[in-house]
């Protein structure tokens, strides 16, 4: 079954978009004509009564949307090796003092040294799928890697090599 979404026009006020969960709970976003937004959880007994709300700015709503989108992408990437015995997916954050900061991904020689494939780089709210060896690594990049436990541990050790 698909996800159920309902839009309700709030005459003179704005509109409300609700996601109705499998269990019947309603999570909504109220968008006011003057630009304000609220994220709300509605009462189970009365779908028009707000049980809890959080007021968010347009920028915060965008950030929340991007966060949910990023989480969905990472869930998908986590499933890349799913179900295959001995194959794991891991997210490795590039430390601020890594010697690979501001250098190309290929310099790590990750695949050659560990047998691990780096399938994506998460940079803030952006995802770079199938990064090229020429992709320059930045502080706090998250490398999504697929490989054996031994290979992933070896890659983590390589990435943690500091500039000092």
UniProtKB/TrEMBL annotation:
Protein name per its UniProtKB record: Unannotated protein
InterPro entries linked: AAE_transporter, KhtT, KhtT-like_N, RCK_C, RCK_C_sf
Coiled coil, from the record: none
Organism of provenance: freshwater metagenome
GO terms of molecular function: monoatomic cation transmembrane transporter activity
Domain RCK C-terminal residues, every copy: 77-161
Gene3D superfamilies reported in the protein's UniProt record: Regulator of K+ conductance, C-terminal domain
GO biological process, alphabetically ordered: potassium ion transport
Pfam family name, one: KhtT_N
């Amino acid at each position: 079954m698909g996800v159920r979404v309902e839009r309700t026009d709030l005459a003179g006020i704005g509109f409300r978009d609700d996601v109705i969960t499998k269990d019947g709970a309603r999570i909504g976003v109220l968008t006011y004509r003057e630009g304000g937004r609220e994220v709300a959880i509605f009462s189970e007994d009365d779908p028009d009564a707000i049980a809890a709300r959080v007021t968010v700015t347009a920028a915060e709503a965008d950030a929340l949307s991007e966060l949910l989108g990023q989480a969905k992408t990472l869930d998908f990437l986590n499933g890349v090796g799913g179900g295959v015995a001995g194959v794991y997916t891991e997210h490795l954050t590039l430390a601020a003092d890594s010697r690979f900061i501001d250098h190309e991904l290929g310099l790590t020689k990750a695949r050659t040294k560990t047998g691990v494939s780096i399938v994506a780089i998460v940079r803030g709210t952006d995802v770079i799928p199938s990064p090229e060896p020429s992709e320059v690594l930045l502080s706090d990049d998250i490398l999504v890697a697929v490989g054996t436990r031994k290979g992933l541990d070896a890659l983590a050790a390589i990435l943690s090599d500091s500039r000092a």
